[in-house]
Amino acid sequence: MFAIVTLLLLGVYHVMRAIVAQCAGAACDDYIPFSLLLPLLVLAAAAATSVTALLHARHDRSWFTVLAVCIVLGVLGPLLSLIVLRDSPDAFVILSTLLILTIPVSALLYSFFRLPTRRPDQQRSA
């Protein structure tokens, strides 16, 4: 569920950016709080997605590794790209979006393609 919320928040952020690009004058001031709040909400949703996915994948070493790598890319990548691309905001937004997308996409892939596991109460007796 957090993965879907993250994707929706990213979509809302990019729609808002498109609207603000068409804006001029004092009317644009209304978008400032949202432009600050939405990226923080996206990072919070991505963090919730990553924690949830890692908790579910803790017994599957390969998926745990994939999810952990995506989390590092999705959390540290935007922070590092902010330092590197501080003079290119459009490039920063695109790269950060792609890096953050690794978290919900990997979580959704895990939820669809993981191997089913048996709970201890479902074990067959020999």
Mean pLDDT across the residues is: 87
Q: Percent of residues in helical segments?
A: over 70%
Query: What structural class should be given to the helix and strand makeup?
Result: mainly alpha
**Shape label:** elongated
Task: Return Rg in Å.
Answer: 18 Å
Please trace the helix and strand order, writing H or E for each element: HHHH
Question: Which regions are unreliable across 5 or more consecutive residues at pLDDT < 50?
Answer: none
> How many β-strand runs?
0
The total of helices stands at 4
Q: Outline of this structure?
A:
This protein is mostly helical and 126 residues long.
Task: Walk me through this protein's architecture.
- By secondary structure, the chain is an all-alpha fold.
- The chain has one domain.
- It contains four helices and no strands.
- The protein has helices at 2-21, 32-56, 61-84, 89-113.
- Helix 1 (2-21) packs antiparallel against helix 4, helix 2 (32-56) packs antiparallel against helix 3 and helix 3 (61-84) runs antiparallel to helix 4 (89-113).
- The mean pLDDT is 87.
